[in-house]
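TL;DR need structure tokens for one chain.
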Amino acid sequence: MGMLSLQHTKIVRLLLILMVAGFLTGCQEEFIEITEPNADTAFASSDSIAGLILKVTLKDGSFDNMIDKCSEINIEFPYSVRVRNEIIEIQSPEEIEALHEQLKQNSKSIKIVFPVTVSFSDYSTMVVSNNGELMRLQNRYIHRKYDDDIECIDFIYPIEMDLYDTLFQKQEYRHVRNDKAFHGILKGKKDFIFEIEYPVSLEISDSTTIEVTNNSELKHAIRNSIGTCDENDEVELENEDQHPGE
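>> reply
TL;DR here they are.
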């Protein structure tokens, strides 16, 4: 049995559960018609396409590596750094790039002014109060040379999709506006079937736009993008006596 047939069987099985549950409760509640998903455009959270989408929609934390020395996090704007006794407020990635050009990759002179709020790749946040807490985060991920996100391709929003809750027999429509929303919709929903309303457009690393019309084409586009651009994930920590902040 092919991959598409397996996916179709899985979706049909979940829909049967949904339909039977709806029939059993039909005498107690008003009947709500549920549109049957298309196997070419629908998928479950355990399918490989869901994992690929989650990786594309992860938040990239590598753009401020010269400051926080960690690709798995980024510091939320605005925040301040001290460079050679001068306080500089950072409010955008462009200001980080300007600082990078000014220091010519000599990030040892950058001292973070704490506290700061850091955001993780899954969009969760935490307050970091001092250099020791930041170093513990760095040490948590230091063994990983690269982070998990797929950065060489991006969704172009908005994206329309339907969610089928097989546990509570509900169907929802979502107008997805950004990576954070898309990631949040898919993450942790084991009893859902997701159906994307194609076509969907994506931008690849050379700024070319492509259009896909089903799940198979979307998986192919994402997988083909992996490794086609420099994700700037590598981080070089200073010597043990050099702290990243203060």
